[in-house]
Design brief:
Length: 360
C-alpha cells in the first residue's frame, strides 16, 4: 500500500499527479462501492490511501474538500483527519494512523518542513519515501538536504525558540528518514528545478493528470493576476505589494486577481478597493482553475510556484505566463536574509515564462 499525507490542496494535486505518473489512469467510470466516512477505493484502482491532515483555515479546507472529491472520483481512498484545533489532537492522530503506517510500503509526503509530518516520519522506519511538491519549498528542501543542513523554511530566520529546541530531536530523526540508504529508497516527484544529493531519485512532474482531466481552457482577451502570500509570511511590505499589483494591472490590463488561499481578507479587500480588480477565491488549485478556464491570454505572477507549474499545465494552449521580479526595497526588515536570493532563483530557473521588471 502507498500511504500519502497531505496538508494542502497543492500537495493533494501532486499526489494525484504522482499516482497518475506511476500507475497510469485509474479505472475512471467504474462504479464505486458504497462510500463510508473515510471514502472508498474503487475496485482495480492503484493501491493508494490519502490521509488529509486537515488545516484550520477555511479556504484551505474548502479546496481540500474539493480535491478529496476528485481523488475519490479517481478511485483512491481518502481519509479526512481532523488533526488540529483540539487539545491532544496531534497525539490522537498519531495513534490512529499508526496501523496504516505499519502496513504501508511507501510513504508519500508533501511538506518535509511540516512538524506534523516530521513527527509521523519518526515512525516509518526503513520504508520507501516519496516527496511531492508543496510549491517552491521543494527547491529549498533538496538544497538543504544536499548541503547537510537542518530543515528550515526559506522565509524563516532560523531562530531557535523553546518550541524548536523541544522538537529538534524529531526534526533530526525526520531528516535521517529523508536520506536514502541501502534499505530505503527516497524519491522526489517535482516540477521544480532541483539538484538532488546522491542516491535520491528525481521524477519529473509534467502535470499529465491535470491535462488529461481538464481543458482545453476557454481563453479571454485580457490578463489575469495571481496573488501570493509573501505579505502574510512577512517577506514583502504590504504597501509596496498593493502598489505593485496596481501598477501591473494598469500596464497589462488585468481585471481579475486570483487570491492565494493564505491571503488575508483585509489585504484582499484593500486590493479590491485600491486597484479595482475583481478578487477571485478559487475553489481548486490554480493549475486546475487555469486549465478549466476561462483564463486570460496572459497570466501575471510574482515569484511563486505557479511560474513553474502553469507553463506545464497550460502547454499547447498559447497562454503566456509572465513573472514580475521582487524589488529589494519591497522586502520588510523582518524578511530572512535568504529571501531576495531565493525569490530571484525561483524566477531565474522558471522555463517558458516572460520576465518582467519590478514596477517603478
Amino acid at each position: 500500500m502507498n500511504l500519502a499525507f497531505v496538508e494542502s490542496p497543492v500537495q493533494l494535486l501532486n499526489v494525484l499527479e504522482w499516482a497518475h505518473a506511476q500507475h497510469g489512469a485509474p479505472l475512471t467510470g467504474v462504479p464505486t462501492q458504497p462510500a463510508g466516512p473515510a471514502g472508498t477505493a474503487r475496485t482495480g484502482a492503484a493501491d493508494l490511501t490519502v490521509v488529509v491532515l486537515s488545516p484550520t483555515d477555511p479556504m484551505s479546507r474548502g479546496q481540500l474538500r474539493r480535491m478529496a472529491e476528485l481523488a475519490r472520483d479517481e478511485g483512491y481512498t481518502v481519509r479526512w483527519q481532523e488533526a488540529r484545533g483540539r487539545a491532544g489532537a496531534p497525539l490522537k492522530t498519531v495513534r490512529e494512523l499508526a496501523p496504516l503506517l505499519h502496513r504501508a510500503e511507501r510513504i508519500v509526503i508533501g511538506d518535509p518542513f511540516s512538524r506534523y509530518v516530521q513527527l509521523l516520519l519518526t515512525l516509518v522506519g526503513s520504508k520507501d519515501l516519496t516527496v511531492v511538491d508543496d510549491g517552491t519549498a521543494t527547491m529549498e528542501f533538496v538544497a538543504q538536504l544536499a548541503r547537510g543542513e537542518k530543515l528550515v523554511r526559506w522565509h524563516r530566520r532560523g531562530r531557535r525558540g523553546p518550541r524548536e529546541l523541544v522538537l529538534a530531536p524529531v526534526t533530526f530523526l525526520a531528516r535521517r528518514r529523508l536520506t536514502p540508504s541501502r534499505s530505503r529508497d527516497v524519491e522526489v516527484f517535482t516540477s521544480m528545478p532541483v539538484e538532488p544529493p546522491q542516491g535520491i531519485t528525481v521524477t519529473e512532474n509534467r502535470f499529465g493528470w491535470t491535462r488529461s482531466r481538464f481543458g482545453p481552457p476557454k481563453i479571454t482577451r485580457g490578463a489575469d493576476l495571481v496573488g501570493t502570500s509573501l505579505v502574510e509570511t512577512g517577506v514583502v511590505d504590504p504597501d509596496q505589494y498593493v502598489e505593485a499589483v496596481a501598477a501591473l494591472a494598469r500596464t497589462h490590463g488585468a481585471t481579475r486577481y486570483f487570491a492565494h488561499r493564505r491571503e488575508s481578507s483585509e489585504k484582499l479587500h484593500r486590493l479590491a478597493v485600491e486597484t479595482g480588480l475583481e478578487i477571485v477565491r478559487p475553489d481548486l488549485p490554480l493549475e486546475l482553475i487555469a486549465r478549466r478556464g476561462p483564463i486570460g491570454a496572459t497570466v501575471l505572477s510574482f515569484p511563486s510556484t505557479v511560474v513553474h507549474t502553469l507553463p506545464l499545465a497550460l502547454v499547447g494552449t498559447g497562454i503566456r505566463v509572465a513573472v514580475c521580479d521582487i524589488a529589494p526595497e519591497w522586502l520588510r526588515d523582518s524578511a530572512s536574509p535568504r529571501a531576495q536570493g531565493f525569490l530571484a532563483g525561483v524566477t531565474g530557473t522558471a522555463q517558458d515564462v516572460q520576465r518582467l521588471p519590478a514596477p517603478a
